[in-house]
Amino acid sequence: MSHCRCLAIVLLIVAAAHARGAKLRIEFERGAEKGPLTVRVAHHPAVKTLKPGESAVLFDDLPPGSRELLVEGDAPLKVMSVMTFLDAKQATRLRVAIPSGFVYGRFTLGGHALANREIVLDSAAESWRTRLTTAADGSYQSVVWRRGDYNVVLDGQSVGTLAIPEGLAPHVDVDIPDRHISGRVTTASGAPASDVVLALETNGMRHTMRRITTDADGGFTYIGVQAGKQTLRVSAAEGLLRPKPIEFQLGTADEQREVNVVLDDGVRRIVDVVDQHDAPGADVKVLCVAGGEIRSSVTTTAKGEAAIDVPRGGGCTLYVLPREGALAIRRSASDPGRIRIALPSASAAIDLVARRTDGTALPEVSFVMRYNGEIVPLAVVREIGVLYTDGDGVARLPRVPPGFYEFWPYRSDDEMAAIVETAGVGDAPIGLNAKVGENRIEVRFAKRH
Prior knowledge:
The chain is mainly beta.
């Protein structure tokens, strides 16, 4: 089996939030850093500020478990994060060294200075968002603590990457393409469709899919678009059917492309979702899939009910996705009347372990999945998240129903699409009859020659 290469994934560590009372003392090794420091606990209101020269801070009454600590200084790229584990039974002491370095460069738009503009930077690996403002010539400079990739956001849209390499004072320029895609979304009768969520995918890079929402007139504009194949999808359109994706090419010489999107009318159906004990399935997502694409989606009420639109004159498949795990599939939704769907018990867990032939962990392997003979379409995979192995070579499905699972590893989006198209005519390389409880399967990958 070939050595897979695929997109990276960031794994969020969820802290145990039940017990409270953990104490944390942080001692900073400042080095050349003499300014103020602000320390935050990610996904928690706790925050502390150290004055210039102060080097220690104490947190009381934090939730125990794995926590991400966010540290920032008085410059845009004086940002970093540190992971630690808090024990409720004893105080945790942590020593943190502040890195040193400098970065400078220039932001341009289509080769011209991006003057006096606020740039938002999101860390690709940590829970950071910071801001810098360019000068009149588009330049920027900052002391930098954390190297790596930062997602560049301009006017609320992701438009590129600031990649800061190792080195004492690297020079890094970022040129944002001066290309736009704009248009209007309307109903079949021509009325403007506001608050419709669109998703733009460029050159098959689903991990960088850009989402925006239409305005009151149904209008939208994507800025800073890279050249290449574009796929424009409707991600959410309440009360209307999503059309098929719109695909087109945007050349290097193209500066503007107009694209109009028309939403279809469907047939309203009522879905009743219950769990294995016949209790209402509340807050459950229901997807209507036809032709491999999601045509509509809804979330059930506290009573387990949802009104979903399905295509006229043809059936679709309903995929039911509870937040706490499990998966239910209703192959046809063309019959009249209410649709009742019973959720299976999510009493199994699956660990897929990817290793090289020498036994070392193989991260960033992704998988296509088939459950009880039903392939999970790419559109549904986008909703529930692509299955990847982490740094330890493990991809975990923590709460799934027992049953027969099959997996195909892949290294590119094109290969994933080919697997989905041909999965019905061949056996999967990985098969597992998942029982109640923990299930584990290890796969060895030979190096490509």
